[in-house]
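Supplementary Note 3. Input sequence used for the single-chain structure prediction.
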Amino acid sequence: MQSAKIRLSPQHIKLVTNAEWILTKNEILGHIKTVFEELYKEQLPLVQLSLLPAEVLRSGSKISRGENYLGLPWIVLDHPRHFVKGNIFAIRTLFWWGRFFSTALHISGHWQQWTAPKLAAAFPSLQNNNLHICCSGDEWVHDVTSTSYLPVTDMTQKEFEKILAVAPFVKIAAYTNIIHIENAAEMLMKQFGFFTEIFQENV
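The predicted structure, written as discrete structure tokens, is reproduced below.
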């Protein structure tokens, strides 16, 4: 059997013969992970001020890392996180290489019912903060710029409340283009603070 030849373009050969760019990529990802660890510490007081149920808070936080979400590396901080099939409550901070940073509230089942009045009361603020919503299809789509997400500004309060009542899940997300990476930590904390503030008062 004749061995298959490796056929690469000059650009590919330039990359595959240079280890430095992979080492630099790993260094960048390590730095982002450290930033997320610091973000978690800054998030803790905001979570403690919220009125989130103990069941939601029990699992604590988790930082995950992977190499292939739609072909690109990613890092995620889930805090708080309560992933039970059909009954999810999580706030997810995401770094997606070459694309964006995002913060998303992910709810379903009885946590969606519990959250609905609070989110409905916050609807004017949701519209004023350039948020996007995903409520159908694959709930594990994280690309806020895809057609799975719609701007909250494109719907009325009545339409929004209907989504909260009947959708199988709801994800509300804010994102920051990767070109703003130097200010990303501050923006992510602002986004996280916005979501947790919704749960600081009983509705």
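The mean pLDDT is 94. The helical segments are 10-16, 20-49, 54-57, 109-121, 123-128, 157-166, 184-198.
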